[in-house]
Specification:
The structure is a single chain. The chain is α/β, with parallel strands linked by helices. The protein has two domains: 48-177, Rossmann fold (3-Layer(aba) Sandwich), CATH 3.40.50.2300; 207-391, Reverse transcriptase/Diguanylate cyclase domain (Alpha-Beta Plaits). Helices cover 48% and strands 16% of the residues. It has 13 helices and twelve strands. The strands form three sheets. The chain has a five-stranded parallel sheet, sandwiched between helices. α3 packs parallel to α4 (110-119), α4 runs parallel beside α5 and α8 (239-245) packs across α9 (247-264). The N and C termini lie far apart (143 Å). The model is unreliable at 1-39, 46-50 and 381-392 (pLDDT under 50).
Length: 392
């Protein structure tokens, strides 16, 4: 019929209209559906107190996932363990900044985990917050005594958890800052101690430290009834080195001499600069005969050595005085030093480049021929050397 649409066409339009009316509108692109298991939490920009890695230890995966989402939104890095043994192994390998630890777990409880972590002296300070459904005072006390630093009960109030995390991490930062300051103070104190005990030029013990060690070692020898010897060494004709080549050359000679003396000493010996070109050996457990033999060996090495410095070389000898305890006239450390110095004086006066033993034949012979001589009248051998052109 004119004016009527074909039946097929009308049915198609009607069908199309019906289909169009019953269809859902197309979903907009870029819309990501929210997760259904854990609600999405808006992420915060972490402040200074909101950074750090937190280890969650819980045997229920759902609990871990809820905590992970919340804590990550606060800006924390999160790791997780599902039992106590796994947590202990993880902490030993990679210590976290804080542990959020469930109390009730199979095999090993959170309380035992806390006890083992806090008992491991190799670990740094790691705050532990225990989480549990148990709310009795006894349960909290048990966890705190095991080493936990704080407690939070289930169901967890996230505002409270956030505050406790920040508080514990603030304490950890303060603890770490305190430990760093203590470390720095220890290093400074160690440097000051070293400087107070060490001769700045040669690196050997200085006179003050030698005196302290003499007293200690002499008393130790007396307690154990062990021998203890002391050797004084003086570089012959040293003043002429400074006068002829300058003090820098003299300093270099003293440093090289110190290396020889240090090299000859045993680990248990002490060697130091007693003053100027005079050095001292402390020889514990060494009888006087052995100390004389040792000094003779050092003397020969010095005699054979060629000292070098900027602009030249030279050779020098050394004189030694040796004394030892036990000896009837040596009753204290001062007497030990004095008798070694007396022997050194004899070595210098009888020609230098020799080892003189206190109370030995050469020493006694010299003393008998110089009765009445006093230490205050001793000649200045280094000054006398200045005019000796053969040593320049």
């Amino acid at each position: 019929m004119p004016g009527e649409a074909p039946a097929g066409h009308g049915a198609a339009v009607a069908g199309a209209a019906t289909a169009t009316a019953g269809a859902r509108p197309a979903a907009p692109e870029r819309v990501v559906p929210s997760p259904t298991a854990v609600p999405e939490v808006p992420r915060e920009t972490p402040g200074p107190e909101g950074r750090g890695r937190i280890l969650i230890v819980d045997d229920h995966e759902d609990n871990i996932e809820v905590l992970r989402v919340r804590l990550e939104s606060w800006g924390y890095g999160i790791d997780a363990c599902f039992n106590g043994m796994e947590a202990l192994a993880y902490v030993e390998k990679t210590p976290p900044d804080l542990i959020l630890l469930d109390v009730m777990m199979p095999e090993i409880s959170g309380i035992e985990v806390a006890r083992r972590i806090k008992g491991n002296k190799a670990l740094p300070f790691i705050p532990i917050i225990m989480q549990t459904a148990l709310d009795s005072t006894e349960d909290k006390v048990e966890g705190l005594e095991a080493g936990a630093d704080d407690y939070i009960t289930k169901p967890i109030d996230f505002a409270e958890l956030k505050a406790r995390l920040r508080s514990m991490l603030r304490i950890k930062r303060l603890q770490e800052a305190l430990e760093e300051r203590e470390k720095e103070l220890l290093e400074v104190n160690e440097r000051l101690r070293f400087m107070s005990q060490t001769d700045g030029l040669t690196g050997l013990d200085n006179r003050r430290h030698l005196n302290d060690r003499i007293d200690e070692m002499f008393q130790h020898a007396q307690r154990l009834n062990e021998p203890f010897s002391l050797a004084m060494c003086d570089l012959d004709k040293f003043k002429s080195v400074n006068d002829t080549y300058g003090h820098q050359a003299g300093d270099e000679v003293l440093k090289q001499l110190a290396r020889i003396l240090k090299d000859e000493a045993r680990e248990i010996d002490r060697v130091g600069r007693y003053g100027g070109e005079e050095f001292m050996f402390l020889l514990p457990g060494t009888v006087l005969d052995a100390a004389v033999t040792f000094a003779e060996r050092v003397r020969k090495r010095i005699e054979a050595n060629t000292f070098t410095f900027d602009g030249g070389t030279l050779q020098r000898t050394a004189s030694f005085g040796v004394s030892g305890w036990p000896h009837p006239t040596i009753t204290d450390s001062d007497a030990l030093v004095r008798t070694a110095d007396d022997a050194l004086y004899v070595a210098k006066e009888t020609g230098r480049n020799r080892v003189i033993r206190y109370d030995g034949d050469e020493f006694n012979e010299h003393q008998s021929s110089h009765d009445g001589a006093d230490a205050a009248t001793r000649p200045d051998f280094s000054a006398a050397d200045a005019g000796d052109p053969s040593q320049r």
